[in-house]
Design goal:
Blueprint: H1 2-19, E1 26-30, H2 37-53, E2 57-61, H3 68-75, E3 83-88, H4 89-98, E4 109-118, E5 120-124, H5 133-142, E6 148-151, H6 157-169, E7 174-177, H7 181-190, E8 195-199, H8 200-208, E9 213-217, E10 244-251, H9 256-270, H10 273-280, E11 284-286, H11 291-312
Parallel strand pairs: 1-2, 1-3, 6-7, 6-8
Antiparallel strand pairs: 3-10, 4-10, 4-11, 5-8, 5-9
């Protein structure tokens, strides 16, 4: 009987929190450095949520370990609705299989909604003598182990996308992990690495300036943000396809009505023509699903990539 009463009290407290929510600023953890794709999307979320909720939404950048540092911090924050976190394929589906993480992506989070699915883009430094995917593969085979690629960290979408490319193309290239997408891009432009497979948001401005050369995008069709860039399938690697996803979550145990309130506001923002256009310009397609649908995706992706990582023998370096 005492246990039953305690459960009722917990539910009552959760409802009370939700009814008055929010009464103070909200922190949105972006587990990546400023200027990165994660940070850019986090600031979009903050910009949309703040006026809808009537409270400031402050982006807190916590970079490192492929997103693990910020994600762990969020997982162990109070489940009161005042700490949100950007989650993605790397932190939810890949990292837990590579690191001794202090969080469980299925157990420790209350998913709110998936923001989008997006393609990545293969880009090379202009000094690399390759103007197509086929030429890059040929070059890598002629120079086994000599070409390097950068990523925003071990287990991040750029790493997994490049690893999939390496395996399907049967080439040997060196992985250079960075603490975020910005330093990886800086070294790619400087010629310290040969290529990356990263977001259009980061790479297309440099392509337009002639500082990078785009070779292919990772989705099933060309994207509006770069219609001149072929897909990997069009470029001759028909088995290759990679879609990254990103969403918003909060620590498990948060009041249910708070989760639903945040879901409602984010989905409303995502379904506007302006949002569709903004994300499409980055090679992304908005989603805006329910908390249950997003939770199901996280479970499925966590299991799928765990199997792929084990079979491929991928290890944290």
């Amino acid at each position: 009987m005492n246990r039953f009463i305690a459960m009722l009290l917990v539910c009552a407290v959760g409802t009370a929190l939700g009814q008055g929510y929010p009464t103070k600023p909200i922190k949105l953890v972006a587990p990546a450095p400023p200027g990165s794709p994660v940070d850019i999307r986090a600031r979009w979320v903050a910009e949309k949520l703040a006026p809808a909720l009537g409270q400031p939404v402050i982006v807190d950048n916590k970079a490192g370990a492929g997103g693990n540092i910020g994600t762990e911090m969020a997982a162990h924050s109070a489940p009161d609705g005042y700490t949100l976190v950007i989650v993605h394929h790397g932190t939810m589906a890949v990292n837990p299989h590579l690191y001794a993480s202090r969080y469980d992506p299925v157990r420790d989070f209350a998913p709110i909604t998936r923001l989008f699915d997006s393609v990545l883009m293969l880009a090379v430094n202009p000094a690399v003598p390759a103007h197509s995917v086929g030429e890059l593969i040929k070059l890598a085979r002629e120079r086994p182990g000599q070409l390097s690629y950068g990523s925003s960290g071990i287990g991040t979408p750029p790493h997994m996308a490049a690893e999939l490319f390496r395996r399907l193309a049967r080439i040997e290239v060196q992985h250079v992990p960075y603490k975020g997408a910005s330093p990886a891009l800086t070294d790619l432009v400087a010629g310290r690495v040969a290529f990356t497979i990263d977001s259009l948001t980061m790479q297309m401005p440099q392509v337009r300036l002639g500082k990078l050369r785009a070779l292919a995008t990772t989705g099933p069709t060309r994207v509006a943000a770069a219609p001149e860039v072929p897909t990997f399938a069009e470029a001759g690697l028909g088995d290759y396809e990679y879609l990254a996803w990103m969403g918003v979550a909060m620590p498990a145990g948060a009041p249910r009505d708070v989760v639903l309130r945040l879901n409602k506001e984010l989905v409303r923002a995502l379904k506007t023509p302006e949002a569709r256009e903004w994300f499409a310009g980055q090679g992304a397609e908005v989603v805006g699903d329910t908390p249950e649908e997003f939770a199901a995706l996280i479970r499925a992706e966590h299991a799928r990539w765990g199997r792929i990582i084990r079979e491929a023998g991928i290890k944290a370096e």
